[in-house]
């Protein structure tokens, strides 16, 4: 009678992970036989898949409501099989889920964009807190050297559909997508979606090309004077300064400015 081969721990772990992630049932059975265990091992595989599908549902709640339980579960299962976790935390799982939805439903691009917004909103809640400055703090600012720092939770996304309207409708209705919800639409041209957090509430709105450009310049560290000079390349100097000042006033009112100096 032959003695069973005892695998080194690292090899046993490698084979167990390969079996755990194997989507094909026949191949999974073969791998389980190699591991030398019985049917009871399936509890681990079931728990692995259910945990990941539920993690995707938790972080893509509006996309799940929009697609419905059956379609979402099918897409989540496909993603679990195609993209095993690569991080120690479930918070990071699903980074590519919007791409999965886009690939599965190329004729429904709003589904992938809803998932993208879901993830971005989640990211705003783990961004550092920052107390927005008040307009009264601008009295001693040197505008020749001042740099505008926007709140850390600010994110810019590019959307090609009205997924932002769908996301807000699903949030306010707190229910599944139905006849009363906005119809999905392709936008005439892609637009920038601005997302940030006010306290414990996410804020979504669109930004035009000029505002997007200035936001990116703030992130790059350009001074207010440099931003005005850049705008003056397309407008009169006084108009450029007025445009930049109007944007700054809007951002202050929205709580988007963390610091100026």
From TrEMBL:
Pfam families, alphabetized: DUF2063
Annotated ranges, domain Putative DNA-binding: 11-99
Protein name in UniProt: Putative DNA-binding domain-containing protein
Source organism phylogeny: Bacteria, Pseudomonadati, Pseudomonadota, Alphaproteobacteria, Sphingomonadales
